[in-house]
Design a protein that fits this description.
This protein has 261 residues and is an alpha+beta fold. It has three domains: 71 residues, no CATH class; 91 residues, Alpha-Beta Plaits (2-Layer Sandwich); 61 residues, no CATH class. Helix content is 46%, strand content 16%. It contains ten helices and eight strands. The strands form three sheets. The protein has a four-stranded antiparallel beta sheet with strand order 2-3-6-4. Strand 7 and strand 8 form a beta hairpin. The radius of gyration is 24 Å and the shape is elongated.
Length: 261
C-alpha cells in the first residue's frame, strides 16, 4: 500500500484538422485562409469563428491566430471554443476528487477505473496535505485506511468463498465482480483511482477558473494547476491569459481577467 499526495495528469489526445477537407471548403466558397499556427485545436476554434462571419480571404482581418482567439475570449464568444477538445488521464487522485470532478457536466466526458472489476487488494490511498503535515493526524488517518483496506481483503476473500459455494455455475468473471462490488463498500474516499476524461476548451477554462481558485478543494486545485500548466504550453492562444497567484499558506491559484467565457 502506497500513500500518495501528488496527482499526475497526462495529455493523451487532441483535436486534429483535416487540411484537405478545409481546402475543399475554401475552394468551393471561392476564398482562401492563412493563419500562423499548426495547432489543430487552435485551427479548429479559429475556423469555427470565421465560418460565423465568413471572414476568410480579403475579409480575414486579424491574421494572428492568437489575436483572433483572444478577441473571441475578450468578447466572451465562448461557444466557438467548444469545438476544440483534449483527452487526459489523471492518476494518483482519490475518489473524493472524482466525485468533485464529475460535477463538471457540460463539455466533459468521463471513464473511471471500476472497483467492480479491478481488484483493490493492492490499492493505494491519497492523503490530504493538511493531514500529512501533522504526524499525529497522519497516524490516525493511516490506521483508519489500513483497517479499511484489511477489511476489504477479508470481505473479498470471504465473499469469493460464499459465491463459489452458492453459485457454482456462475461465470468466473461474474463471481469476481460480485465479490468485489460488495467488498468495496468499506473502502474510504481516500482510495486512489484513475480517470480518463475529455473536455473542450470552454469547459477546461471553466474548470481551471473555478477549481484553481483560492477557495477550491486542495486536491482538485492541484489537478487544475497541472492541467493549466499543460494547456498553457499546448494551446497558448486559448489559455495564455491565465496567471498564477501565490496563496498565503503556500501553493498557487489561477487568475484571469477574462472570466466565464
Amino acid at each position: 500500500m502506497n500513500v500518495l499526495t501528488d496527482p499526475k495528469v497526462y495529455l493523451v489526445g487532441r483535436s486534429a484538422i483535416d487540411t484537405s477537407a478545409v481546402q475543399q471548403f475554401l475552394s468551393d466558397e471561392g476564398t482562401a485562409w492563412t493563419t500562423d499556427t499548426e495547432n489543430g485545436s487552435e485551427l479548429i476554434a479559429e475556423m469555427a469563428g470565421r465560418v460565423c462571419y465568413m471572414s476568410f480571404g480579403e475579409k480575414q482581418g486579424r491574421r494572428s491566430n492568437q489575436d483572433y482567439l483572444m478577441n473571441l475570449i475578450r468578447m466572451e464568444h465562448g461557444s466557438v471554443l467548444e469545438h476544440s477538445v483534449w483527452n487526459f488521464i489523471v492518476t494518483g487522485v482519490s475518489r473524493s476528487f472524482t466525485h468533485e470532478l464529475i460535477r463538471h457536466r457540460a463539455g466533459f466526458a468521463y471513464s473511471q477505473l471500476s472497483q467492480r472489476y479491478v481488484d483493490e487488494s493492492e490499492a493505494d490511498f491519497v492523503e490530504p496535505d493538511v493531514i500529512a503535515g501533522d504526524p499525529d493526524l497522519h497516524d490516525i488517518w493511516l490506521e483508519s485506511v489500513t483497517r479499511s483496506h484489511e477489511a476489504y481483503r477479508k470481505l473479498a476473500d470471504g465473499l469469493s468463498e460464499l459465491i463459489e459455494r452458492d453459485y457454482p455455475d456462475m461465470k468466473r468473471r461474474d463471481k469476481r465482480k460480485r465479490a468485489r462490488e460488495a467488498a468495496r463498500s468499506v473502502l474510504p474516499n481516500a482510495t486512489e483511482t484513475k480517470m480518463f476524461f475529455s473536455a473542450n476548451a470552454r469547459a477546461l477554462r471553466h474548470f481551471i477558473e473555478y477549481r484553481g481558485a483560492p477557495d477550491a478543494e486542495p486536491e482538485i486545485r492541484k489537478v487544475a494547476l497541472k492541467v493549466l500548466e499543460i494547456m498553457k504550453d499546448e494551446s497558448p492562444s486559448i489559455f495564455g491569459d491565465y496567471e498564477l497567484e501565490s496563496l498565503p499558506g503556500g501553493g498557487s491559484s489561477t487568475a484571469t481577467e477574462h472570466k466565464k467565457v
